[in-house]
Specification:
This protein is α/β, with parallel strands linked by helices and about 350 residues long. The chain contains twelve helices and twelve strands.
Length: about 350
């Protein structure tokens, strides 16, 4: 990992090539950054050149040389680890032929991060292996990857499998609020059965551990939401709190975790509650994330906990209608880069 005085080398994947991922990466590359970071886009250089021309951005692409130590970012220069795209991409037009390209960029980023952590494969015949302190991901379009016949439910699940992680946790964060999820991309009808004692214990253990080790919080305080309205109303609106959530929280409190709840979701996101906790654990995707995105859209980022590597991401989708127009906001990507640098230093 990067030391306090060093420059962090951060891999950035372009995500769906027809979306705004290439746009916001190029927009960041065109500007100066007051960060000790070298940005490396894992992408097809032709895709980046075409999009830069379309957007009127002056960005020189330089193939990365991993034999050289990382140098601080310079405005108008973007280092690239080339990955060939299958077919030329048209902004706003999805093409399932490029699904393998999207996943290849992710694999390259993971491989470089694992190698930096001493967990990846070793180079052969004197070759220099890609080496990254962290990875930042632009948004992907899950549907087009599935249309290509590739099972894919999201970055979080992909990264867990790619790194061999037993349990990962999706956490979104703004400068003022952190929300983690017990379940991620599930139909709402499947959520109650998924909320088990084992799942909650694993989730809270990962969350507690990474808040201490990656975020430097010596004794994290975690607010846990109930599953049902009014946190079950004593069993009158569902028994998941009584049968599953409360016993799990009590057991983990005995192990020293500082846990609050289960709290009703409709009153948990108030200043009185939030000023007393470091993170809120929601039971499902749309229980917690609408509040976070309403309060900090454009500033929120996605952080995957439980990985042996550092991964952050934007909080928005591919915005196909904005691709190639120059109207995409790169604020979330910039924040994701900043947090990746902070975590790699820690």
């Amino acid at each position: 990992m990067a030391s306090e005085a060093s420059v962090a080398r951060i891999a950035i994947t372009t995500g769906e090539p027809a979306g705004i991922g290439p746009d916001i990466i190029l927009a960041i590359a065109a500007q100066g950054l007051n960060l000790p970071v070298q940005l490396v886009a894992i992408a097809d250089p032709g895709l980046l050149r075409e999009r830069a021309t379309r957007l009127g951005l002056s960005v020189a692409l330089q193939e990365i040389d991993f034999a050289q130590p990382p140098s601080p970012h310079r405005a108008g220069i973007l280092h690239v680890l080339p990955v060939a795209i299958a077919e030329p991409s048209i902004p706003g037009t999805l093409n399932a032929a490029n699904a393998d390209y999207v996943l290849a960029t992710l694999r390259a980023a993971v491989d470089g991060c694992l190698h930096s952590a001493g967990m990846g494969s070793q180079p052969t015949h004197g070759a220099t292996h890609p080496d990254f302190d962290a990875m930042v991901t632009a948004p992907v379009q899950k549907s087009v990857i599935n249309d290509a016949g590739i099972p894919f439910s999201g970055h979080t699940e992909f990264l867990a499998q790619a790194t061999g992680s037993a349990k990962v946790v999706m956490m979104l964060a703004t400068p003022e609020l952190r929300v983690a999820l017990a379940t991620t991309h599930l139909p709402l009808s499947d959520v109650p059965a998924a909320i088990t004692k084992e799942l909650l214990e694993q989730t809270l253990t990962v969350l507690h551990h990474d808040l201490k080790t990656k975020f430097g919080l010596p004794k994290p305080r975690i607010a846990v939401l109930g599953l049902n309205p009014h946190a079950g109303e004593g069993g009158h609106m569902g028994r998941e709190e009584i049968d599953t959530i409360i016993p799990t929280l009590e057991r983990l409190r005995d192990r020293g975790m500082d846990l609050v709840g289960p709290l009703p979701a409709d009153t948990a996101f108030t200043p009185k509650v939030l000023e007393q906790v470091d993170v809120v654990l929601a039971m499902y995707h749309d229980q917690g994330l609408p509040v976070l995105k309403y309060s900090g859209f454009g500033e929120a980022i996605n952080i995957t906990l439980g990985l042996p590597i550092i991964r952050t991401s934007v909080d928005h989708g591919t915005a196909l209608d904005l691709a190639g127009t120059g109207k995409a906001d790169s604020g979330s990507l910039l924040r994701a880069i900043e947090v990746a640098v902070e975590l790699s230093r820690r």
